[in-house]
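It is worth pausing here to work through a concrete case rather than discussing structure prediction in the abstract. The textbook approach is simple: state the sequence, then state the predicted structure, then interpret. We follow exactly that order.
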Amino acid sequence: MPFTDLPPEQLESLREEIPEPEDFDAFWEETLRLSREAGGDLRVTPVEDTLLSTVDVHDVRFPGWHGQPVAAWLILPAGAGGPLPTVISYIGYAGGRGLPTDHLVYASAGYAHLVVDSRGQGHDTPDQYEASGPQWVRGFMTRGIQDPREHYYRRFITDCVRAVDAARSLPQVDPDRIIVRGNSQGGGLSIAVAGLAGQDVAAALPDVPFLCHFRRGAQVATEGPYVELVDYLRNHTRDDPERAFATLSYFDGVHFARRAQAPALFSVGLMDPVCPPSTVYAAYHRYAGATAIKVWPFANHSGGQGGTAPAHLRWLRDKGLSPAPG
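Step two, the predicted structure:
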């Protein structure tokens, strides 16, 4: 497979200016305020029959968008007390929290691990909202595309920020050592949360992140969710493409990156047809906190595969965010 985008030397020097909504901060301040004011209960229930002996698992339900319940797994080293450094994971596109057996690495390394279900994508958290206006029938990219206040990612990103709020209230969690992570969609969400949650996030680990530089993604990606946007604009020729991109600009990882202060380790696959490298670098180069990027020269959207978790654990150790020994 050849490079799917710009060559590496151009990616390193890429500094494209991407217009930002004038009311971006006000939009998100209002969005988060309204959801926090809506309240809602945090419920944590032990899961007894997991077939696992080295971890303890809890089913978590926390209030997300407008107080609506969001599902998560809390996975802990067996018998651990706390508080522990905590990894919050957001999931890739069209997936959900799955099963606890899908998420054993970080608890095995001594972290508390909160795995957040994906609104409308997973099995346990419905998207309780009906946006008005036209949308393409497949996927989530164009739900509410005519109005940022109705767009799907307004609700989903809010859920992800509220996951940090919920984690900070758990006795097993060290509120000063919260790490947000994810791959693809989850990577884009981790950038958004790092930008919106401020000092409540100690580090971010966005792998091959989606939701960055939507216009470039629509122009270059040949597979995956950015193609949904192309399909929509192709089949809704009466709609103004600029209106769609104006809506998406409220959810662009490039703009969240400018506000993120926590150190971050990005990753990128230079042969990625789903999240083209130039979209990843657009957010990476604008990230305000200290950054590093792990480049996988021959990787597609799978990124580093089995090499990703060891890279994370070494980087977190170097940043002083490993669990205390013993």
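Step three, interpretation. The beta strands are 43-47, 55-63, 69-77, 84-90, 112-116, 173-183, 203-207, 264-269, 291-296. DSSP finds eleven helices and nine strands in the chain.
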